[in-house]
Amino acid sequence: MRDRKRDYELLFIVSPLRSSDDEVNATIEKVTQMIETIGGNVNGIHQTSPWGRRKFAYPMREYAEGESSRRIVTEGYYVLVDCALPTTQISELERVLKLSGMILRYMVTLKATQSVPVAAVEPAAE
Prior knowledge:
This protein is of the alpha+beta class. It has 2 helices and 5 strands, in the order βαβββαβ.
């Protein structure tokens, strides 16, 4: 049976403890490779304004490497990825994102298809 691909948006936040330019680019590269490995296509990556480094609405706690207690973080590096994925592979993508130590939070949403209402279409002039 053929997997159906749908358009999704993946928003993830890279930890500020590991958000130098090289580490952010490496994280984005790992995520895009994972999407392609599970049979998806990356249509675009957005990390410029309004994305990029931003303050959180509320502080979060994160474990830093080698520390037993959690640090409070108040900002992160936001990245939005437009992609097409097989619907059966979303759970695999989420599993890998959860296990990543570089990503604080993520959200996968189905892109809304824009349909034109019938009443908005004007008849052709004769």
